[in-house]
Amino acid sequence: MDTAQGPTRIARPSNYVSQAHVGRFLQWAILFVCLAACGHAQLPRVDAPKITAAPTLSLADAATTMAGLPGRIAFVSSRSGHDAVYVMNANGSNLHVLADSGTRDENPAWSPDGQSLAFDSGQVGQHGIALIGAEGTAIHRLGGNNAGDLTPRWSPDGKTIAFTSYLNGHTQVYAMDADGTHVQRLTDNIAGNEIAAWSPDGKQILFTSERDGSEQIYLMEDDGSNVRRLTHNDNQNLYPAWSPDGTRIAFVADFDGNFDIYLMDNSGNNLQRLTSTVGDNISPAWSPDGTHIVFSSNRDASYELYVMKADGTDVVKLTDGGGNVTPTWTR
After folding, report:
1. What is the pTM of this model?
2. 112-164, pLDDT tens digit by residue?
3. Sign (positive/negative) of CA torsion 186, 188, 190, 191?
4. What is the pLDDT of residues 193-216, one digit of tens each?
5. Which residue from 58, 81, 246, 275 could staple onto 200, CB 3.0 to 4.6 Å apart?
6. CB contact at 8 A, 121 and 99
7. CA 189 to CA 172: how far, in whole Å?
8. Whether 308 contacts 296, CB under 8 Å
9. Measured on CA atoms in the order 127, 237, 43, 227, is the torsion positive or negative?
């Protein structure tokens, strides 16, 4: 991932685009024929709620707000000239590099106990899943299909890691044991599917897919069954993140041309807008207690990390240096 680009979570091979467009054309052609036959004039559309952008807090107010933020945040930064994994306290202090192989270390995810980070790295072949201790212990590879494994996500019990892979020539969602064994394919659709988040009870997985045209958010059981669509619009819907209590989902959509952060309930209803600024606001991640959301934004030209309350207020800037994306928060 080029951190200067922001909203694109993972790069796709060139043949994926052409195949996806063919499939999409057929889907839309069939849909328009059906709509014409039924007498409908247009596709249903969800409009984004309008809000006034919450101002970034002053330094004095920010210091008070940040002082009470618990835990640690891992993220990707290109401040050294290439993507590496960094860790800092949730209030922005004690920033340090954790994994820097010089070969694009990206998409970190904390283990449930906060003792390890899974991430994808070019150090382990054609971008594979790697594991490192929270204190920077030795990196080792999980799995080994050498097909481009990306965006690892831990199950809540720490026993399974779901991830995205090009193993069969298309982006699909897989799961494996936390030691890299027993790889299981969960999705099967040529339009591409990308992993996003486990439900807090570990029984369901959110993912994104272009199987119905534009990129939408879907939900499936942890074995890949019972797939259902949660978002219903003709925009891009990305980065879904489940709240710790399982009732809400934060996600990113481009309803107004820019990418902004929204909330919906776990059934896809009750849309609420959290950000509205110049530039893009992407990759939301919940605090462990569900009271705050950390995210990346280029509202001030370069991508930096910000934190806000879960209702979109009290926005605080956490980083400087540019190219800071894909945060993940642990206790």
Report:
1. 0.85
2. 999 999 999 987 667 899 999 999 987 888 876 667 899 999 999 999 999 99
3. negative
4. 998 799 999 999 999 999 999 999
5. 246
6. yes
7. 7
8. no
9. positive
